[in-house]
Design a protein that fits this description.
The complex is a heterodimer of chains A (about 110) and B (about 110). Chain A has about 110 residues and is mainly β. The termini of chain A are far apart. Chain B has about 110 residues and is an all-beta fold. In chain B, strand 7 and strand 8 form a beta hairpin. The relative contact order of chain B is 0.34. Classes of the chains: A mainly beta (about 110), B mainly beta (about 110). Chains A and B meet through strand 5, strand 9 and strand 10 of A and strand 5 and strand 10 of B.
Amino acid sequence: RKEVEQDPGPFNVPEGATVAFNCTYSNSASQSFFWYRQDCRKEPKLLMSVYSSGNEDGRFTAQLNRASQYISLLIRDSKLSDSATYLCVVNAGGTSYGKLTFGQGTILTVHP
Amino acid sequence: DTAVSQTPKYLVTQMGNDKSIKCEQNLGHDTMYWYKQDSKKFLKIMFSYNNKELIINETVPNRFSPKSPDKAHLNLHINSLELGDSAVYFCASSQDGSRWAQYFGPGTRLTVL
C-alpha cells in the first residue's frame, strides 16, 4: 500500500462546479497534513494545512479523519485559475523528522 | 522578495560531469530540504538539514552530497552525473521539521545528455 494515496483523476469540471478530492494515508502516527497545489512546471505551493476540526479558507474546505486515515479537499465555485495538480501531503513527524510524503497528485481542469 | 531561491533554474550537462545547485532561504527557517521530482511527477525527499545538521538521508546515491554552510543555505553537489539524474530538483524550507509546512523554491531542471 502506498504511504499516501490519491485518485490521480483527471477531474474535468465546468466553472462554478463543486469538486472534492480524497486522500488516504497509511501511517497512523502521522502528525500533520497539508494540501499543496502545483501548476505545470512550477513548484508546489501550500494551499492549506488540514486540522482534525476541519478548516476552511474561502472556497476551499479541508477535512481530516484520523480514525479512517483519510483527508479531503472540497473546492466550491471552481474558477479557471483552480486548474492545477493538487497534492495531498503528510508529515510523519517523530523519527521521520520533517519527512513530507507526497501523494501522486490529482489533476484538476476547470473549463469555461 | 523571493523566500526560497535556487540557482540555476536550468542545467544541461553531459554524463560524467559534476555540477552544483545552490539554495537560499530568507524566511529565518531552521530546516531545509532537497526533493527530486522525476518524469512521472512524483516528489520524493532526498535530504533534510536542521540548523546545518543532516537529519534525513533517504538512500540517495553517494554521488549526491548536500552541504549546508549556514542555516539559510543548502547546496547540492552531484558527481559523475548519470542519465537517470535528469529531473527537477526542489529546495524547500520550514520553521522546523516537526510539523510545520514547507515552502519550496522554483526548482532546478537538470537534463543529463
